[in-house]
Specification:
Elements: H1 7-22, H2 43-57, H3 63-68, H4 72-82
Helix pairs in contact: 1-2, 1-4
């Protein structure tokens, strides 16, 4: 991917994936929403999300960095820093 997305664009794509692929109510989407306790993702969902984000960015989040991700904002920051 040659293009660098803004944090807003990444956040919007993340929310779109969560709503469409994981059927999460968009009213729950807040930057500080925890992926596990607030959005009820489990570890398998998190891996699926990482795969979807990899398809979106053509970049892979390292397993070490992936383990640090807890909130929607953490995901946005990780993706933004990859690009």
């Amino acid at each position: 991917m040659d293009e660098k997305y803004s944090k807003d664009e990444i956040y919007n794509k993340l929310c779109e994936i969560l709503e469409e692929e994981f059927e999460i109510d968009k009213s729950l989407f807040k930057a500080d929403a925890n992926l596990f306790s607030d959005l009820d993702l489990d570890s398998i969902d998190a891996v699926d999300l990482a795969v979807r984000l990899q398809q979106f960015t053509d970049k892979r989040i390292s397993p070490k960095e992936f383990k640090q991700i807890q909130t929607l904002n953490d995901v946005v920051e990780a993706i933004y820093n990859l690009l």
